[in-house]
Amino acid sequence: GTPHKYDPTFKGPIYDRGCTDIICCVLLVVAIVGYVAVGIVAWTHGDPRKVIYPTDSRGQFCGQQGTPNAYVSLAMGELGTLPEKPRIRLQDCSGPPWLGCFQICVNRCPDRFLTLLSAYSSSDMEYYRQFCVPGFSNPLKVSAGNPTPESPLAEDAFSCWPPLSLFQNPIEILKNQECPAMLIPSTPLARRCLPAVQAKQGVIMVANETTYDDGTGRRRNVTELLEGAKKANLVLEARQLAMKIFEDYTVSWYWIIIGLVIAMLASLLFIVLLRYLAGIMVWVMMVLVILVLAYGIFHCYLEYAKLKGEAGSDVSLKDLGFQTDLRVYLHLRQTWLAFMIILCVVEVVIVLLLIFLRKRILIAIALIKEASRAIGHIMTSLLFPLCTFFLLCLCIAYWASTAVFLSTSNEAVYKVFNETACPYSGQICMPETFNTSNVTKACPDAQCLFAFYGGESAYHKYLIALQFFNIFMFFWLANFVIALGQVTLAGAFASYYWAFKKPDDIPAFPLFSAFGRALRYHTGSLAFGSLILAIVQVIRVTLEYLDHRLKAADNKFAKFLLGCLKCCFWCLEKFIKFLNRNAYIMIAVYGTNFCASARNAFFLLMRNIIRVAVLDKVTDFLFFLGKLLIVGSVGILAFFFFTQRIKLVQDTAPTLNYYWVPILTVIVGSYLIAHGFFSVYGMCVDTLFLCFLEDLERHDGSTEKPYFMSPGLQKLLKKSNKGHPDA
């Protein structure tokens, strides 16, 4: 700990420490070993192809080598829930497939309306046969033999089954799941055939038809297919939007990178200037932010005035509704008026805050200067967030891949289906040995058909628990990585503060030394703090899941209770994050365990609550203004460039479908870059602040207890080391 009298060989309290929270360290290691084991088991049983490739009703992949569907990979199947009509309805696909609907792999999507009943007794059966299972032969119209596919691409089509009593000869075909009952003109999307619904002059049509034969002799309107194809149309629209956005990225990616490099250079330049001109830079920053907002207000006014009298510019946002093309909103006067009002409110609030907090800002400037000096001596700290980001990416990648493999670990389950009474009905069967089993002897009409993806083993029964464990470990490890980054930076900056002679007493490689101390002595404490936060976050995720499931419920009390719980746990998470951050600083400084560090940090802050509010929060506000200046400046530059309003580079700017795509990318990327640089600054300020408070409480400036704070802070607080030769 800290000595009670000055010792010239003392280099600060950060060096006197031992291992802390060993039990939590062991628990973390065991959990990681278990997590790796879960990942190995998931990768052994999982098959990500189930997410990408469609399957037929027998659970076989379409277009996969080594299967009966090796040359057919587009799938036809259930359209969705159609409005109920007499004698026509979709059955539950979990029951016998020949009573409801099934999926089948085909070479291409159908391009006409056709029913099995009408094709069976006509020349259309040859066309219809290509949408049947491989090897199907119609004894009346075609010869036996396997079809020869014209394309290696296979697709997935969905079919709906009318009641079996409507068929005579085709009933055996339907019963054996050899052909669909009806074909609907479809278009391929993601290896699946979806109804080709289109609107012409306000009339809903499918293949230029407004009605179709449902296979029972009745004519039905194609609008009844809309419910089943609604989600498919949304997917189509989303795909078109995604393709346009992708095209914009392909022609503007290098300009986006240039914009991000400018943001990085601006952030670095801002920090370097703060080291030497902190006071001037802070005030200049405030003035520039005010000027940027003022220009934004002026620009909005110009756009608002320019649109006056133009056709369609007076349409309200409410009447216009949601539009995927955001450029439409920029042609409305109401849009620019809203922007102008918002910027005016922000401008007034910032000016008032600067007026009332001007004295507090002077104190914050002194603290920023001290942080600038600390970062100037430990410049590698600015690059350390890249290490944290890399470790977080590893956590995310492992969690995502494990989740995919776990979700695709289910196996194809086959069950016995039959028309007559059978004691084996509903039991699990194996298609390979079914014909030689006792089931076919006892029930001649029984069939072994694909039922669903699942499993009867212990592994499959606990898949949900493994997914929950996967989510929990992701939160735990992600919080641990963040905690490791915080305690490393805190240890490096604390070594600067507790150096009596700055910079002579600063140890060599302070960042790497702090990283080593954190892993060697305090892995358990970091695991403890991140475990508490992970538990709260998992509870929040569970509450969000329950809220999603209860949206359709009409229980107002349950919704109210759930809302209260969500609010409480949100507040709890914010408090734990604040407490953990300061506890990690105390761990880095004194090497105490997590509970003792959290308690000491909390009561230290409570004893200096006024200083906390004045110094810490005002400093955070100044950092926010710095981010706003960098993001705002780069964002405005990107706006003028991509909208081709800069004449010098007007011909260089790429032609885009949506110019807001690269602009938003540059703005978000600039914010993340600025946030990374300023997060280091924020951790430095918080660390120096807690060390400063400890220094004030433990020392009095005497020869026995000199202050470790810099002469600048001593002068600011009118303190001094009285009579000390090195003061």
Which characteristics define this entry?
mainly alpha; transmembrane; 727 residues; antiporter activity; 13 strands; three-stranded mixed sheet; two-stranded antiparallel ribbon; 20 helices
How are the SSEs ordered, and which strands pair?
Layout: H1 22-45, H2 49-52, E1 74-76, E2 101-106, E3 114-115, H3 116-120, H4 125-129, E4 155-160, H5 171-175, E5 182-183, E6 186-189, E7 192-195, E8 197-200, E9 203-206, E10 211-213, E11 219-221, H6 226-306, H7 317-320, H8 333-356, H9 358-377, H10 384-407, E12 411-417, H11 438-442, E13 447-454, H12 458-461, H13 463-497, H14 510-521, H15 523-549, H16 556-590, H17 594-607, H18 609-642, H19 660-698, H20 711-716
Parallel strand pairs: 1-4
Antiparallel strand pairs: 1-2, 2-4, 3-5, 6-7, 8-9, 10-11, 12-13
Polypeptide structure, described:
By secondary structure, the chain is mainly alpha-helical. It has 3 domains: 22-41 and 254-403 and 462-717, no CATH class; 53-79 and 88-138 and 167-217, no CATH class; 413-454, no CATH class. The protein contains 20 helices and 13 strands. Strands 1, 2 and 4 form a 3-stranded mixed sheet that branches. Helix 9 (358-377) crosses helix 18. The model is unreliable at 1-11, 78-100 and 139-168 (pLDDT under 50). Belongs to the CTL (choline transporter-like) family. Choline transporter. Keywords: Antiport, Cell membrane, Glycoprotein, Membrane, Mitochondrion, Mitochondrion outer membrane, Phosphoprotein, Transmembrane, Transmembrane helix, Transport. It catalyses: choline(out) + n H(+)(in) = choline(in) + n H(+)(out); ethanolamine(out) + n H(+)(in) = ethanolamine(in) + n H(+)(out).
